[in-house]
Amino acid sequence: MAMKALKQKQWLRMALYLAVVIGLSFGLYYLFRYLMTYFDIPTERVEEFASTAYLVVFGVTLVSNAAVFVPVALHVSVILTAAEYWDPVIVALVASVAGTLGEITAYYAGYWGKRIVHFENTPGYDRLVGWMQRYGPWGIFLVSLQPVLPVDVAGLLAGVSRLPLWKFLLPCWAGKFPKYLLLCYFGLVVWRLLPLPPL
């Protein structure tokens, strides 16, 4: 019975997290549209702000991914909004580079944390390190590609098992780029299905 209650709580937490991401995305999108109308910026002039938009995507994604085990949904909302107005491929590329660099904090938390906290006494430690040593970059790629598990887990395990940093960063980026690219194009489809007020 306790296990069922725990699963319900996890599903509720995931649903709440998804609702926050969707709410933030709609809020940012409508705010951006409102500001364009308020400042009387024609759609043709939006391209002039591309470099600033990519910088914002980079900064927000970097900070969101640097927060180890803190679910920060703001970067998803910023990516979705930016992909509507600017090149989705560049948005995904910028976000994936920033997200990968942000994961360095999880890597070093595992790398240096081993000296502070003795992970060896943690149940399942040997199994996790063995998994990372056996699958290493492929495991990191798969964790980075999927949208549910936090990539922080892969970063911590890569750091703990002393995987070279570049062997963590390359598969991490290789997983994040297609994930963000899919997110950008999925966002474009959703925005076009919504009954949005004209600018």
What portion of residues is helical?
over 70%
The total count of strands amounts to 0
How many alpha or pi helices?
8
The major pleated sheet works out as: none
SSE series: HHHHHHHH
Mean pLDDT: 76
- Rounded to an integer in angstroms, the radius of gyration calculated over CA atoms is 19 Å
* Whole-number count of domains: 1
Specify the structural class. Answer: mainly alpha
> Which regions contain 5 or more consecutive residues with pLDDT less than 50?
none
Write down the overall geometry: globular
**Whole-Å distance between the termini?**
53 Å
- In what range is the share of β-strand residues? under 5%
Please give a structural write-up.
The structure is a single chain. The chain is mainly alpha-helical and 199 residues long. The chain is built from eight helices and no strands. The protein has helices at 2-38, 50-66, 74-85, 88-102, 104-116, 125-145, 152-160, 165-193. The protein starts with a helix and ends in a 6-residue tail after the last helix. It has one domain. The mean pLDDT is 76. Helix content is 77%, strand content 0%. Helix 1 packs parallel to helix 3 (74-85), helix 3 packs antiparallel against helix 4 (88-102) and helix 6 (125-145) crosses helix 7.
Short summary:
With 199 residues, this protein is mostly helical. It has helices at 2-38, 50-66, 74-85, 88-102, 104-116, 125-145, 152-160, 165-193.
